[in-house]
């Protein structure tokens, strides 16, 4: 009962006539019993607290950014937790969160040290979100996979937000802990195919051209690039397909890769 009250206090559940209702809980979670519901709800609570902190606020729980990301790191291997986390964050918001680490209370954002801390937090958060997204995607059917993929693609395919492509690539690129040159993350096949088909439609040549404007000595041209690209994560590829191609390396079933982009994606130089 305490968990239900906590969900209500964080606007994840609603109260009507003294009855608290938690909506949008997946059937698989409900069928899994109390433990799976607790895992799902912890993911939802962590998502709420993360968004509050990255918005510059303090969550009702009083937890710090380190507290929340520690919970995320511990729990992303559980699919119910990851579904609760991703659904509550909203797929359309995933690629923005790592760009907001400079808003965490305690950082002025002005000193070199604060900039370095924020950047490392961005990289660490992309890794955690990649684990969660991969874990959640293995539970999705065709409709849910397409829905999530569409929302993520739309979030990076808009003027002023093309810089989020670098975040998406960092999220999906994962790690190679065993040194076998294969992405460790295991995404759902349908999700990967849907992502690849959506990202292929982004005009790579136009995006790449505007990225080149960022290095212009002409402030007017540089400003055009900044307005088009928006915030981005340094040292990451801006090729829309780079991350999903990397993820497909660990999923032989997701073999429908756009052929004409293969070579360039694998050799693209990060910005």
What does this structure look like?
This protein has helices at residues 2-9, 27-31, 34-54, 65-75, 79-89, 112-137, 142-156, 164-173, 189-199, 204-213, 219-229, 242-248, 262-267, and strands spanning 13-16, 19-22. It has 271 residues and is mostly helical. Strands 1-2 form a two-stranded antiparallel sheet. A hairpin with a 2-residue loop joins strand 1 and strand 2.
Summarize the entry for a quick read.
The chain is mostly helical and 271 residues long. It contains 13 helices and two strands, in the order αββαααααααααααα.
Task: Let me know the number of strands.
Answer: 2
Largest sheet: 2 strands, antiparallel
Which regions are unreliable across 5 or more consecutive residues at pLDDT < 50? 259-269
Helix content: 55-70%
Order of helices and strands: HEEHHHHHHHHHHHH
Portion in strands:
under 5%
- Distance from N terminus to C terminus (CA atoms, Å) equals 49 Å
Overall outline: globular
Q: Strand order, biggest sheet?
A: 1-2
Number of helices: 13
Q: Mean pLDDT score, rounded?
A: 86
- Report the radius of gyration as a whole number of Å: 19 Å
In terms of structural class, how would the helical and strand content be classed? mainly alpha
């Amino acid at each position: 009962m305490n968990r239900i009250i906590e969900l209500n206090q964080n606007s994840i559940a609603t109260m009507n006539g003294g009855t608290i209702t938690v909506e949008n809980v997946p059937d698989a979670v409900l069928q899994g019993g109390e433990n799976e519901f607790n895992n799902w709800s912890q993911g939802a609570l962590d998502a709420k607290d993360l968004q509050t902190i990255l918005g510059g606020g303090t969550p009702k729980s009083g937890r710090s950014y380190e507290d929340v990301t520690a919970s995320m790191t511990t729990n992303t291997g559980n699919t119910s937790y990851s579904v609760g986390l991703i659904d509550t964050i909203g797929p359309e918001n995933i690629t923005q969160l790592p760009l907001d680490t400079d808003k965490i209370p305690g950082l002025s954002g002005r000193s070199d040290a604060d900039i370095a801390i924020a950047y490392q937090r961005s990289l660490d958060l992309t890794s955690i979100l990649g684990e969660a997204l991969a874990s959640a995607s293995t539970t999705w059917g065709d409709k849910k996979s397409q829905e999530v993929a569409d929302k993520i693609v739309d979030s990076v395919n808009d003027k002023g937000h093309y810089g989020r492509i670098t975040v998406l690539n960092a999220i999906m690129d994962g790690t190679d802990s065993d040194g076998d040159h294969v992405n460790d993350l295991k995404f759902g096949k349908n999700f990967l195919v849907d992502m690849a088909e959506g990202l292929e439609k982004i005009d790579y040549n136009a995006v790449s051209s505007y990225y080149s404007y960022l290095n212009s000595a002409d402030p007017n041209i540089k400003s055009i690039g900044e307005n088009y690209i928006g915030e981005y994560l340094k040292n990451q590829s801006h090729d829309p397909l780079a991350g999903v191609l990397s993820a497909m390396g660990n999923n032989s079933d997701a073999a429908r890769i756009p052929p004409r982009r293969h070579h360039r994606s694998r050799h693209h130089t990060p910005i």
